[in-house]
Design a protein that fits this description.
114 residues; mainly beta; 4-stranded antiparallel beta sheet
Length: 114
């Protein structure tokens, strides 16, 4: 059974930084799948934040986070990361990672205070 577990969320002031991690267990083919980070704010639809290809060479970002967020992965550790800088109150949401739209984590809360 594949499990994705996010960590690293928390409360931070505007302008601050956080680094989210998503560790995959039970997945022996982690290095074959693209990974993504999504977020969902209260009362809003889930939004795609960033994706990274299986080998890590191709990355995409939502316009709202370009230049501030960086997605990366360590296939040896079966972990994907989301480095978030210059955080804004509108970045407040539950952040989820997913494996090619097949498996999802439980999410980690990010709250940015103004």
């Amino acid at each position: 059974q594949v499990q994705l577990v996010e960590s690293g969320g928390g409360l931070v002031q505007a302008g601050g930084s956080l680094r989210l991690s998503c560790a995959a267990s039970g997945e022996i083919y982690f290095n074959l799948y693209w990974m993504g980070w999504y977020r969902q704010a209260p009362g809003k639809q889930r939004e795609l934040v960033a994706t990274i290809s299986a080998g890590g060479t191709n990355r995409t970002y939502a316009d709202s986070v370009k230049g501030r967020f960086t997605i990366s992965r360590d296939n040896a550790k079966k972990t994907v990361y989301l480095e978030m800088n210059s955080l804004k109150p509108e970045d407040t949401a539950v952040y989820y990672c997913d494996e090619s739209g097949i498996y999802w984590g439980q999410g980690t809360q990010v709250t940015v205070s103004s």
